[in-house]
Amino acid sequence: MIPEYAAAFDAAGVNEVLGKYRISDNGLRLAHFFAQMLEETGGFHIQVESLRYSPSRLMEVWPHRFPTLDIAEQYAYNEEKLGNYVYGGRLGNTNPGDGFRYRGRGLLQITGRAAYAKYGQQLGIDLESTPELAFHRDHCLDIARRNGRRADTAERPATSSPIATIPSQGSTPAFRGRPHSFPGS
Length: 185
Fold this sequence. Notes:
The protein is mainly alpha-helical. It has helices spanning 3-10, 14-20, 27-40, 55-61, 69-73, 79-87, 98-101, 113-123, 140-146, 173-181. The longest helix is centred in the N-terminal third of the chain and has 14 residues, at 27-40. It is globular and about 50 Å long. The relative contact order is 0.16. Residues 148-155 and 161-171 have low confidence and may be disordered.
């Protein structure tokens, strides 16, 4: 586990964050939350999204953006070029370079300038100017809790089916991989 994440989970306020948003209401809810974080961070070893893809992998992950090997080869193994191509002009990324600058970071890999601005404003930190704060020990767990459509999940009952309850991002590769990180699935 990356020391920054270990420090976040060992911090004095961790139970308060998990309790405030009812993530720790029961073991199953907590397991769902941790399964997603484990999947998104490669077992708590990834802080920043890697955009180092082979041409064939680009065609698998983004088949509409890379319909041919010729197109995929132009972006393969070039993280900055790829980030700006796949994330540029969406997710609040409006300036040149935003796609790469605001690629996924943290426990649930927040992505896009709009997400960095939103969570930064909610937490009173400048994530837009300093995206690296997304995986900082003082912020990563609170950002993960707030990420995406997680705010409404606290009112839902925690059940083993569907695993989609916390969080709900069914179209992402990490979401599809969650059953592998969730015992009993």
